[in-house]
Amino acid sequence: MAHDVAAPVQAPFFTTGTRILAAIAGIGIAVYIFRLIAGLGMVTNLDNQYPWGLWIAIDVACGVALAAGGFTTAALVHIFHQEKYHPVVRPALLTALLGYTFVVIGLLADLGRYYNVWHPMIPFMWQGNSVLFEVGICVMIYLTVLYIEFVPIATERFKGRVHLLGRLSVFDRLIEWAITLADKTLGRVMSLFIIAGVVLSCLHQSSLGTLMVIAPTKMHPLWYTPMSPLLFLLSAIAVGFPMVIFESILASRSFKLKPELDILSGLARFIPVILGLYLSVKIIDLILRGAWVYLFDGSPASLMYFLELGGGVLLPLIILMIPKARGSVGWLFTAAALVIGGVALNRINVFLVAYTPLYATKTYFPSPFEIALTAGLIALLVLAYRAAVMIFPVIALPAGVRPMVVENKNKALAGA
Amino acid sequence: MKRRDILKLAGAGGVLLLSGTAAAGDTQGMASNDDALGVLVDTTVCIGCRKCEWACNQANALSSRDSKAFEDKSVCRKQRRPVDDAFTVVNAFDGRRSDGEPSYMKIQCMHCFKPACVSACLVGALRKTPEGPVTYDSWKCMGCRYCMVACPFQIPAYEYSDPLTPRVRKCTFCAERLGEGKKPACVEICPNEALTFGKRRDLVMLAYSRIRQFPDRYVDHVYGENEAGGTSWMYLSPVDFTKTELPALNSRPIPEITETIQHGVFRWFVPPVLLYGILGLSMISMKTGDQDKKEDDNGA
Fold first, then answer.
1. Alpha-carbon torsion A337, A342, A343, A345, what sign?
2. CA atoms lying within 13 Å on the CB side of residue A350
3. Which residue of A135, A360, A379, B294 could cross-link A21, Cys pair, CB 3.0 to 4.6 Å?
4. Judgement on whether residues B186 and B200 belong to the same structural domain of the protein
5. pLDDT over 90 (residue A4)
6. With b meaning 16 or more CB within 10 Å and e meaning fewer, what string describes B220-258?
7. Has residue A99 been placed in a domain?
């Protein structure tokens, strides 16, 4: 930890890129409000045949999977003590925290009675047979754990810098005391939360894969398997480090920092192992169930399956087996992006492509509103991430680089 | 060995945390009660008059439509599905009748013994009552529509056009009327006795006695006796059921696999607690002494 210190990033918030993102986010927010007022029928292409669409497949299923970097890096560094990777824990934690927050926001748009979202917390409504109940409860607790894990980062930012305006300044000491207390207490029990976070993640990542197992007659045999929970867990673990690599390279580009190649290529060494395991389970499952015959019928589903496995698993696996590729920012980025695309495609395949209603009279394609809302939430997520790393000490800057300006800005912010 | 104590605490905390959250009942309201009620639909008797559709509309106070609207038999050829505004529909199918006329099949919720929708519902808004009906409580419902994903008969419909209080809509088996000792509205109105209401046990016997009595009239199969683990509503047909719109299902309850996985993962909470313990042990054992200080400096 001596070499790197996480600090708020100094950069202008608005660039051409963030302005475009803000515009997309603005449209998304408008659609979101429209959906709350006008209802699902007006806004989505969902119907009685296709009760789940883009929002469940991308905002929820992909959102949860792509936030897996949070628990995989926490396990790597805090449980298996690979201290070298410490600098990526905070960015991954922030990604998970924002990712899950946006999963909930996205889910609320999809729920017909979004104001009842808290019902799974009421004991007399608990329904232990429901896979979705477990997913819901685990996500709720895990989101809480993520915020608890983030507290030390927030306290680090404000400790010793509390200056409230005017009369309120009499509370400075009280708040300072509270922050210190929170920090100390949490420091002692943080391990409990970190392990809980990993356990909760394993539980609901796999359970997301169990969801569609309840629809045997509607699912395409290529994706319908009782092994689905294991496949979902493995693919979530597999996409964790690629997400970290992908974001880290993007962030360093955006903030004009040098990518921490040593750490990233170290992380990349783990990826082929997990991808290999995932790929073998997938292939063995396909053979055991005899579902491989559907691979060669030339249907759109089979093409999607090849794309998912070939482009999203096999190709990055091969790239990352090559030591030279692991040492190149370009190849690392490419391979990471492929894994992310592959896992995202898997979730889309399971929740949308594989799902055929018994009495289908049409196929589902998301409405422009659905697409705009999803795009808006993703844009908003990126903006929130940018804002967070500019406010909180998340991204590790090489020792000595931490500029004085940061300190001054911190003071100004704390005072404001 | 302060750290070790913390880890012990971690184990205990984990148990508390997890057992406090997801310890819900194994099965609820799952009835394979012999006295459960059911309906036998004899498609060889149904004349497609759609009076059951009208009675259903009235009994459930669905959108007000003139009874005349239900007299047009041509819509039966459209392979309609139950929707939020019509819990039952009568569809025509080719029953190989000698007079060349179509046969008719009334479609509605089957009220399964082990309903996938009930298993899917995370807040228990859907419930299988011991009497037979699968009921819905819109007050609990979150509107996730997982029941619709789960249903093997594609029955639950949603009020997509309602922005604030959309409900899942499906045949209620007239649960309220049954409570008052009445028959379901559709059964009561059926002029041809195509629908027989009674104890399901008796209905199965009735079905087989009809098949025995008129082997030329029926295929030797009571749909719903075993399909998806058995349903409260059952069908007799003049042709093989694969030639009707009812889905071919084996006798395994639809939610069997998901519930097996789910209860396996949470059996006595052993697997999650074990995982917690293993991770906790790794955390201690893989730590080397000199890292201890560092670790204390940074919580996250």
1. positive
2. 29
3. A379
4. yes
5. no
6. ebbbbbbbbbbbbbbbbbbbebeebebbebeeebbbbbb
7. yes
- Please answer yes or no on whether A83 and B294 come within 8 Å at the CB atom: yes
Distance between B219 CA and the closest CA of chain A, angstroms: 23
Give the nearest chain B residue to A351 (CA atoms). Answer: B149
The model's confidence at residue B12, banded by pLDDT at 50, 70 and 90, is: very low
CB contact under 8 A, A48 and B156: yes
Predicted confidence (pLDDT) per residue in B164-191, tens digit: 999 999 999 999 999 999 999 999 999 9
Query: DSSP letters of B242-279?
Result: GGSSSPP--SS-TTHHHHHHHHHHTGGGHHHHHHHHHH
Contact B232, B39 (CB under 8 A): yes
pLDDT given for residue A185 in this prediction = 87
The rounded distance, in Å, linking the Cα atoms of A12 and A26 is 20
Taking CB atoms and an 8 Å limit, are B149 and A110 in contact across chains?
no
Q: Is residue A26, in this structure, part of any structural domain at all?
A: yes
Nearest to A71 by CA among A205, A190, A207, A272: A205
Is the pLDDT at A125 greater than 60? The verdict is yes
Rounded distance between C-alpha atoms, residue B280 and residue B42, angstroms: 62
* Test the A interface: residue of B18, B144, B287 with most A CBs within 10 Å: B144
Give per-residue pLDDT as tens, A283-319: 999 999 999 999 999 999 999 999 999 999 999 999 9
| Percent of chain B clearing pLDDT 90 (strictly above) | 75
User: Element (H or E) spanning A201, and its range?
Assistant: helix A172-210
Phi, psi of B295 (to 5 degrees): -55, -40
In which band, very low, low, confident or very high, does the pLDDT at B289 lie, cut at 50, 70 and 90?
low
Name the residue facing B154 among A89, A214, A358 (closest C-beta). A358
Range of B55's domain? Answer: 37-116+167-254
Tell me the average pLDDT across A365-376: 98
Same domain (yes/no): B43, B109:
yes
Provide, as residue numbers in chain B, all residues whose Cβ is less than 8 Å from the Cβ of A1.
Answer: 294, 297-298
A2: phi then psi, degrees, rounded to nearest 5: -70, -30
The structure tokens listed for B163 are 């922005």
pLDDT per residue as tens digits for the range A227-239: 999 999 999 999 9
Nearest to A109 by CA among A366, A413, A407: A366
- The CA distance from A312 to A318, in Å, is 11
What φ, ψ does residue B130 adopt, rounded to 5°?
-60, -25
Dihedral angle over CA of A30, A35, A37, A41, nearest 10: 150
Q: Predicted confidence band at B35 (pLDDT cuts at 50, 70, 90)?
A: confident
Rounded (to 5) percent helix, strand, coil in chain A: 75, 0, 25
Cα gap B241→B222, rounded to integer Å: 9
Answer yes or no: is B10 within a domain.
no
- CB atoms near residue A19 (< 10 Å): 9
Contact: A119, B123; criterion CB under 8 Å: yes
Contact A39 B294 (CB under 8 A): no
Please give the Cα distance from A334 to A349 (Å, whole number).
Answer: 22
Q: Determine contact, residues B165/B76, Cβ cutoff 8 Å.
A: no
> Is A51 inside any structural domain?
yes
- The domain that holds A237 is classified in CATH as 1.20.1630.10
Beta bridge partners of B86: B83
Tell me, yes or no, whether B109 lies in a domain.
yes
CA distance A42 to B158: 13
